[in-house]
Amino acid sequence: MTLPLRSERVTRAVLLAHPAGHSLSPAMHDAAFEALELDGRFEAWDVPPEGLAAALERLRTSTVLLGANVSLPHKEAVAGFLGEITPIARRLGAVNTIVRHGRTLKGDNTDLHGFSAALAELGRPPGPGRAVVLGAGGAARAVVAALLSAGCAVQVHNRDRARAAALVEAYRGEGSVELIDGRRLQQAVERADWLVNTTTVGMHGGPPGSPLPAGLLPSTGAVVDLVYRPRPTPLLAAAQAAGLPTQDGVAMLVHQGAASFQAWTGHQAPIAVMRAAVERSLAP
Ligand code: NAP
Q1: Which residues, listed in sequence order, are joined to residue 70 by a DSSP beta bridge?
Q2: Ligand 1 atom closest to 139 (CA)
Q3: HSE on the CB side for 139, CA within 13 Å?
Q4: Among 19, 197, 201, 207, which one is least packed by beta carbons within 10 Å?
């Protein structure tokens, strides 16, 4: 389906999250609708878990809602309410995008694409080499999948060891992926060609500080942090001070959002416009 230009009615896409107040998605998607002269708007809906079923029913039976982005805490729970789920969302065990086709809701996941596209912008895009991933939550699943497809050997470290073990198990057979505990973390990080933080540590409002002990960084590898508030994060500030290539979470946010926008509207997303809107929203 392609959204008609200057249609009679204002169509909308929404965010389903809890809390939803600090989301950058309305600014990013509204800038895209505006730049393409589409009569669309993006709204953030603050939906607590007990309101998820009703919100999805409203989306399914609407004639003006194109679809939704899904964020914490609904990325896994939402699957039970959808008529269809793409193979990639099923593989990652999480839905971050819903597209309404008539009265059917289809769940997708654009995080893997978003992270791969972001990495392609990094001064040192991944290929064969060593990657260390900190964290084993929903975002880590997309990151590990992207790094494995780029040919990296991936080592995963997480506070909750069992969660990291489950993630590693899920990707067994898809490339070189292993769990590393605290004792091997220092050597793994120092030798890493790419280090990716997927934990919430250092995020505004999250656990403070850096996810790594002070002074521990790759010797020469690139450092990516999925967090984008504050800028830079404590981890990226340390990496920049050490002269390492770095990237924060804005690039991934924009590319996953662009893929969602394209799925809702059928139009090529104006990535530079979306990025500028995010940068403006994050400016001090
Ligand atoms: P999640 O599923 O809740 O996972 C959170 C991760 O953070 C887990 O690995 C958790 O470890 C770890 N963690 C939390 N508190 C910690 C602490 N005090 N010490 C050490 N580790 C801790 O969340 P998610 O969806 O994967 O998102 C993770 C981060 O990525 C968030 O900051 C999110 O904003 C960001 N993200 C960014 C983008 C983007 O487009 N830039 C996209 C997706 C996510 P345990 O398992 O031990 O609890």
Answers
A1: 16
A2: 26
A3: 22
A4: 207
For ligand 1, is residue 73 a contact (CB within 6 Å)?
no
Q: Which residue among 97, 196, 198 is best mutated to probe the pocket of ligand 1, counting the most ligand atoms within 8 A of its Cβ?
A: 198
**pLDDT band at 79; cut points 50, 70, 90:** very high
Q: Domain ranges in the chain?
A: 8-109+251-282, 125-244
Per-residue pLDDT, averaged over 214-224, amounts to 97
Model confidence at 1: pLDDT above 80: no
Q: What's the CATH code, domain 125-244?
A: 3.40.50.720
Phi first, then psi: what are they for 56, rounded to 5°? -70, -35
Burial of 200 (0-12, 13-18, 19+ CB in 10 A): middle
28 lines ligand 1 (CB under 6 A): no
Report CA(204)–ligand 1 centroid distance (Å). 12
Whole-number Å distance, alpha carbon 264 to ligand 1 midpoint, is 27
Q: CA separation (Å) from 96 to 68, 73, 122, 139?
A: 8, 11, 24, 10
pTM across the whole model: 0.95
159 lines ligand 1 (CB under 6 A): yes
How far, in Å, are 156, 161, 163, 235 from residue 208 at the CA level?
21, 21, 22, 11
